[in-house]
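Write out this protein's structure.
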Amino acid sequence: MEKIYESAENYMETILILYKKQAEVRSIDIVHETGFSKPSVSVAMKHLKEKGLIDIDDSGYIKLTDEGMTAASGVYERHLTLSEALKAIGVSEETAAADACRIEHYISQESFDKIKEYVENKIK
C-alpha cells in the first residue's frame, strides 16, 4: 500500500467514526463532522476515490473500500490507544484527544506497538 497522507487518513478516520454513528455516510456528513467546507470535502473525496480508498455510489453514499477500511481502522486504533496512554499519565481528555490526533500520523510502528502493549497490560 502506498503512503497515505495525514489529511487522507483524517478523512478516512472521520468516515469510520461516522459509520459507527449512522448507517450511511455522505459528503455533507463529513462537512458537519469536520467543519471543513463542502468544496474541500468534495476534492478530498475525489482523491480518496481515485486512490481506491473509498467508493461513492450514484446516491452519493460513501463506503470505505477494504484497503480504505484497513487504513482507517489503523489510524482509529492509534488514536484511541494514544489517547488512553496520554490520559493515563494525567493529560486532560480534551488535550489527549487533540495530541493523539497529531501523533497518530507520525509515530513509528515500533513505538506504537510498545505503547499499545503498555496500555493493554497496565491501563485496562
